[in-house]
Amino acid sequence: MNWDQIEGKWTEMKGKARTSWGDFTDDELDQIGGRKDQLVGKLQQKYGLTREEAERRADDWANTL
């Protein structure tokens, strides 16, 4: 699934994101809103990842949808 599709279906995708990243709060998931750059930033912040690693994990997650 591409990021435009994820953003458009974010309400449905939030549950899948929570399954993958259980530390995210509802407010954080609402802030992300399906935008890759927001997800990458939150992954960096919450999990202490480098930008490259966070982007890889976000892309891997999107490819499993």
How would you describe the shape? globular
Helical fraction equals over 70%
Radius of gyration: 10 Å
| Average pLDDT over all residues | 96
Distance from N terminus to C terminus (CA atoms, Å) equals 6 Å
The CATH C-level name is Mainly Alpha
Describe the structure concisely for a colleague.
The chain is 77% helix and 0% strand.
Features:
mainly alpha, Protein Yjbj, Chain: A, globular
List the helices and strands and how they pair.
Layout: H1 3-8, H2 10-20, H3 26-32, H4 36-47, H5 51-64
Helix pairs in contact: 3-4, 4-5
What would you note in describing this structure?
With 65 residues, the protein is an all-alpha fold. It has one domain (3-64): Protein Yjbj, Chain: A (Orthogonal Bundle). 77% of the residues lie in helices and 0% in strands. The chain has five helices and no strands. The chain has helices at residues 3-8, 10-20, 26-32, 36-47, 51-64. Helix 3 (26-32) runs antiparallel to helix 4 (36-47) and helix 4 packs across helix 5 (51-64). The radius of gyration is 10 Å and the shape is globular. It starts with a helix and ends with a helix. The model has no long low-confidence stretch (mean pLDDT 96).
